[in-house]
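G., the chain you wanted modeled:
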Amino acid sequence: MSTIMDKWFGESNKLVDALFSLASKLQPCIIFIDEIDSFLRERSSTDHEVTATMKAEFMTLWDGLVSSGRVLVLGATNRPGDIDSAFLRRMPKRFSIGLPNDEQREKILTKLLSDVQLDCSVKDLVSITDGMSGSDLKELCRNAAVNSTREYIRKHILDTNGEMQIHNTKEISLRPLKTKDFLDAMDPEKVMKLNVTSDLD
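Predicted structure as tokens:
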């Protein structure tokens, strides 16, 4: 949606029109809107004029799609209650996508950590990530890697005054990530619920 949202008055409407025009020419085609609630949320009197006119334009063009056409508007959201009812009526089919189970989390983590050295098994990580979504897992892996990098900087690059030293980047070798790195990157409350100690290696 950031591509469509434009600060200049009228430009967003033109981009919405171009979107539907291109979709019609490329059909079969899917117009997918991630986090659709941020764009098609319940309308109110406090809406900015540009936003209100863009929503109206989007709805008009959506209604203009012929039933025999092969253009599908698909949206994803974690907050269906925030979406304008007028738009919900135009999306009669709804599918609830649950959180990934153990097997699915293992596949996601294996993919995310395919180029990362580990000093623990992916199955160990699966057991401590119950209830996490795919985006949660991605953020967890990123934060765990950042923690390891910060540790390296503190030990090998900062001098006693906390100043950066000139360092040959070719010699940098980060240690493999441990279970502790992932636990440290998690919400402390979740770690407590897991009933695991933070000194895991």
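Strands lie at 29-34, 71-76.

Shout if anything looks off.
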